[in-house]
Amino acid sequence: IPSFPSPPPGASKQDVREKVWDYLEASGLADFPRPVHRRIPNFKGSPQACCSVKELDVFNRAREIKVDPDKPLEGVRLAALQARKTLLVPTPRLKTGLFNKIVPPSGATKEILRICATSRGIKEYSVPVGLDGKAQVDLVVVGSVAVSEKGWRIGKGEGYADMEYAMMVSMGAVQEDTPVITIVHDCQVVDIAEELLGDHDLTVDYILTPTRTIRTNCKRPKPQGIIWHKASYLCWHYEMLEKIPILKCLRYREQQTGKDVTLQDEHSDLANAHTPAVLNEKAVAENTRPQAATNSAQIGQHNVESDSLSPRLGGSGVMTTVYVGNIPPSVRVSELKCALREFHATPLRLNWQGAQHRAFLDYKDKATAESAVSSLKGLSLRGNTLRVELAKNQRNKGQVEINSQK
């Protein structure tokens, strides 16, 4: 087995990653899925390392645990389920929200719990938890490519674990003293220069390997929220915001509270191009004025116009309607409008049917409607992930919906 080469002075994070990945493969320590490059690597002995978590007081005291979906952490997810703890797992690449809460079926056998701890089980036995999910995480478990005994951590380079933690801070789900654990092979515990760490990098308090439990006593502060102006942090630019709807939603919320959410200067041209669509109340008023002028219905009642699906509004061609369902009873139409503005999906007309927990959005053509559906995928309001799709029967269904309420 080749000896593990210590990272040389001046090595970058990527240098460290490549050395760890290469060594795991060359030494025969890498385990499925292979190759381990560009992943949080699985390794032979990961089940034993995961079992050590049961000996930690921070695990035994915890009621709600967030564990990343990586393969080497499967044993921790199983231990949490077996101990009847609430298990939260981030959604893949955060495309459909922040967390999935794993909910095993009533009377689940050991075998079913094992399935629940796998990627298949995360899909089959989970419910989404959004920004309003009121999560109170007592313990965070993350994967790593490399980690030092001081608690410095290097991930696979995409920044998701750092971002997930920062988002949990923003939503009040973790506190300053919430412990963080990582599971690695012994060879992944290496010297890491502190100058490689940024303010956004998550540090760890415990390192579990197949042979050791290391308490790092790390004093470096953990991220205090998302650092919007740092482009190095998950490549903060509008392209990434488009890919992660819940991130856009969080950015809008923090903007509403007065926090500076400006992205790095090099993207200011994009920011300037997008800002009016997000912040220009006058433009929104122009889009919604006909509705406001003709109907001042109270929240929970229908808020529609008799011609709200008329093709005349589209200018050229027939308008296309988008259905939005699973709207919580407590949500006001103003909240939905704010979200539509933030996600650049403001419709020509909004048909609010709060009592039925739904709304219909009219767009000038099919392409615009499909773009809105794509932008709004995964949008969560007050803990509910909304159902967003093209209305099944564009004109007839919509007209019946309206007429039936007159």
Structure description:
- The protein has 406 residues and is an alpha+beta fold.
- The chain folds into 3 domains: 13-215, NagB/RpiA/CoA transferase-like (Rossmann fold), CATH 3.40.50; 231-261, no CATH class; 320-390, RRM (RNA recognition motif) domain (Alpha-Beta Plaits, 2-Layer Sandwich), CATH 3.30.70.330.
- The chain is 33% helix and 16% strand.
- The protein contains 14 helices and 17 strands.
- It has helices at residues 13-26, 46-51, 57-61, 74-82, 110-116, 119-124, 160-170, 238-243, 245-256, 268-279, 281-294, 333-342, 366-376, 395-403; strands at residues 64-67, 86-90, 99-102, 126-129, 139-143, 146-147, 153-154, 180-183, 206-208, 213-215, 302-303, 320-325, 349-353, 358-363, 380-381, 384-385, 387-390.
- The strands form 4 sheets. Strands 4-3-2-1-5-8-9-10 form an 8-stranded mixed β-sheet, sandwiched between helices.
- A hairpin with a 4-residue loop joins strand 9 and strand 10.
- Helix 4 crosses helix 5 (110-116).
- The longest helix has 14 residues, at 13-26.
- The termini are far apart.
- The relative contact order is 0.10.
- One of its GO terms (cellular component) is cytoplasm.
- Keywords: RNA-binding.
- Residues 287-312 are annotated as: Disordered.
- It comes from Chionis minor (Black-faced sheathbill).
- GO terms for molecular function: RNA binding.
